[in-house]
């Protein structure tokens, strides 16, 4: 007799994965959450928004990309959730929004309950750190489409910001300065290039000890994405902030340009920071041009804030108090001063 199990899908293992993850999901909640996991939909009490004059809902969807291949190769799955949450909630923060809840989606070739629970453990821990409720999710078993040890993770998140506190390009003006915030490493972008350089070109293995890193290659590549959520929300509460940019795919210049009006241009001073060794090694081993590195990788900057010049020192100090290394990396000038309107020059 043919059954769902004989086709490669185990309902029982899926149920066991849910039981294993419940303890972690319980740590990632908010008072507005109604009910628990296991229903068809997650519930969030929207009456909490009555305190807003004009609440704007912000939403974001994203995944982790090919960094999951590193987690799978190392058989360590409890950190990739930090990358997912970082990619999601910090896209909301750039407009000044507080993340409210998140849902995740895990697709795998074969449900191994302990592995799924480890993935969710990381997601829940990151949600707890950012004040985001893990409201629900889905685990899908796709035999024949994915290998038994393969999986991918994605998710979506929703947040809220008061309309008159919305950050963005319309607030940026000549004379502002750019405050850069250090990344924890590669974060979750550019891994197709990074894997090609280290594995295909250089022939390195994940267990290779790399003196420049002070640890193995695998440990370096699996470093979780830094979460900027609470430091950036605290920054927006404490000082005048005009815009923020989350440095993800496309690199520093391209992402900063997304929050610039056509009336200004920006020059960033490369000498104001030193990227971690991993960035230099990708360029050296792969003979990757600087322009390509800048396009694919964050080059040591994971988030930036654009603030008035007289607020810059306070911004740097506050971020430091929240454990984020920050510095003044550039200036905003009239269009044409450093390039075309809405452009960023790295010099």
UniProtKB/TrEMBL annotation:
Domain PurM-like C-terminal: 173-336
Enzyme Commission code(s) on record: 6.3.3.1
Top-level enzyme category: ligase
The entry's keywords: ATP-binding, Cytoplasm, Ligase, Nucleotide-binding, Purine biosynthesis
Keyword Plastid: no
Gene Ontology molecular functions: ATP binding; phosphoribosylamine-glycine ligase activity; phosphoribosylformylglycinamidine cyclo-ligase activity
Catalytic activity: 2-formamido-N(1)-(5-O-phospho-beta-D-ribosyl)acetamidine + ATP = 5-amino-1-(5-phospho-beta-D-ribosyl)imidazole + ADP + phosphate + H(+)
PurM-like N-terminal domain: residues covered: 55-161
Family affiliation: Belongs to the AIR synthase family.
Identification of the protein by name: Phosphoribosylformylglycinamidine cyclo-ligase
Organism: Aeromicrobium choanae
Source taxonomy: Bacteria, Bacillati, Actinomycetota, Actinomycetes, Propionibacteriales
Gene name for this UniProt entry: purM
């Amino acid at each position: 007799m043919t059954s769902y199990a004989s086709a490669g899908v185990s309902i029982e293992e899926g149920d066991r994965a849910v039981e294993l993850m419940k303890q972690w999901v319980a740590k990632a909640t908010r008072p507005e959450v109604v009910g628990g996991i296991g229903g068809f939909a997650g519930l969030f009490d929207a009456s909490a928004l009555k305190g807003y004059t004009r609440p704007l809902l912000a939403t974001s969807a994203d995944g982790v990309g090919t960094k999951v291949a590193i987690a799978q190769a190392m058989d360590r799955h409890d950190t990739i959730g930090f990358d997912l949450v970082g990619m999601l909630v910090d896209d909301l923060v750039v407009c000044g929004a507080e993340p409210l809840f998140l849902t995740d989606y895990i697709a795998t070739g074969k449900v191994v309950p302990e592995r799924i629970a480890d993935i969710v453990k990381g997601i829940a821990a990151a949600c707890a750190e950012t004040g985001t409720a893990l409201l629900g999710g889905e685990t899908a078993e796709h035999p024949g489409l994915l290998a038994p040890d393969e999986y991918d993770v994605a998710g979506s998140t929703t947040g809220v910001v008061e309309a008159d506190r919305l950050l963005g390009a319309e607030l940026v003006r000549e004379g502002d300065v750019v405050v850069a915030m250090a990344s924890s490493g590669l974060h979750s972008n550019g891994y197709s290039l990074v894997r090609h350089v280290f594995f295909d070109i250089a022939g390195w293995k994940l267990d290779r000890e790399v003196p420049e890193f002070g640890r193995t290659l695998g440990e370096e590549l699996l470093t979780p994405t830094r979460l900027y959520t609470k430091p950036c929300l605290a920054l927006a509460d404490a000082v005048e902030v005009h815009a923020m940019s989350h440095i993800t795919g496309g690199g520093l210049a391209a992402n900063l340009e997304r929050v610039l009006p056509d009336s200004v241009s920006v020059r960033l001073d490369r000498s104001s920071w030193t990227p971690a060794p991993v960035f230099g090694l990708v360029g050296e081993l792969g003979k990757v041009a600087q322009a390509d590195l800048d396009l694919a990788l964050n080059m040591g900057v994971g988030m930036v804030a654009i603030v008035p010049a007289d607020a810059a020192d306070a911004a740097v100090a506050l971020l430091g108090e929240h454990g984020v290394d920050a510095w003044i990396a550039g200036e905003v000038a009239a269009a044409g001063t450093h390039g075309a309107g809405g452009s960023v020059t790295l010099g």
